[in-house]
Amino acid sequence: MTRYLTKLFTMPLAIVAASQFAAAPASAHPHVWSDMRSDLVLDEQGRAVAINVEWIFDTGYTEAATEGMDADGDGIYTPAELHPVATENINALKEFRYFVQAKTGGKDIAYADVTEYGHRINDEGRLHMIFVVPFAEPVDLTAAEFTYSIYDPDFFIAYDFVKENAVAAIGPLPENCTISIGTVAFDEQVQQTKEMLAQKPPDWQPEQPTDFGWLFAQPVNVTCKPQAS
User: Which of 57, 93, 176, 177 meets the CB 3.0–4.6 Å disulfide criterion with 127?
Assistant: First the structure.
């Protein structure tokens, strides 16, 4: 198990990881798969103030994570019934910047605490996690390069953008700015790292904490052209 995911998703993830590894020993990492989308939230001045994050987990993890959460036994998992596990997940994610690495001018953006979050089961029967990462201060998108990536550093969970409406802006994006999804860096080092991770058992941990996830993460970039004088 990774250095923190036992705390983040507790026993349900361990169950899923063990079963998936037993079924597919040639692909030890990742163990959980999630679709993802996000929104960049802007204030009235067009400054970035938050990032909305949506994760839709695979059915295997969904089944394990929701076991025993149907309090009234009616076969329906309501947001209220799922709230305790949502709170546990958000509290654990805080230490790791909520898996959201937002930067301006190459420096980490400070966050306020996440207070808006929730879980639900979507129409496909998959666990859908939604939360808002607020910035401590508004960020002027035109002042410096702005980018963010959403990923699990240990690559225990693989996040892939949905095919449609993967990223959007909520609020007035400055007219000279565009938002886009970048490509995953791919070179010999990335390929070798991926092959190495695929051969590791579920409980493997590197001797030193290592950020594997960034190798496979697609960055979201905001590009602003200089305004004509």
Answer: 57
- Is there a contact between 119 and 83 (Cβ–Cβ < 8 Å)? yes
Q: Per-residue pLDDT averaged across 77-97, rounded?
A: 91
143 in any annotated domain: yes
Confidence of residue 73 (pLDDT cuts 50, 70, 90): confident
Cα separation, 150 vs 93, in Å, equals 12
Query: Which residue range(s) make up the domain with 30?
Result: 5-224
Cβ proximity of 131 and 90 under 8 Å: yes
Contact call for residues 18 and 202 (beta carbons, < 8 A): yes
The answer to the question of residue 21 being in a domain is: yes
Structure letter (DSSP) for residue 61? H
**What is the average pLDDT score of the chain?**
82
Residue type for 131, please?
F
Count: domains in the chain: 1
- Give the pairing type, strands 32-42 and 167-170: parallel
> In angstroms, rounded to a whole number, what is the distance separating the alpha carbons of residues 118 and 78?
10
Please report whether residue 126 resides in a domain: yes
Q: What is the pTM of this model?
A: 0.81
Check: CB of residue 32 under 8 Å from CB of residue 57.
Answer: yes
Residues found in the chain: 229
Q: In Å, what is the CA distance from 94 to each residue of 100, 131, 177, 210?
A: 10, 12, 30, 18
Residue 208 structure tokens: 């030193």
Tokens of 177: 């700015």
Structure-block tokens of residue 85: 């596990």
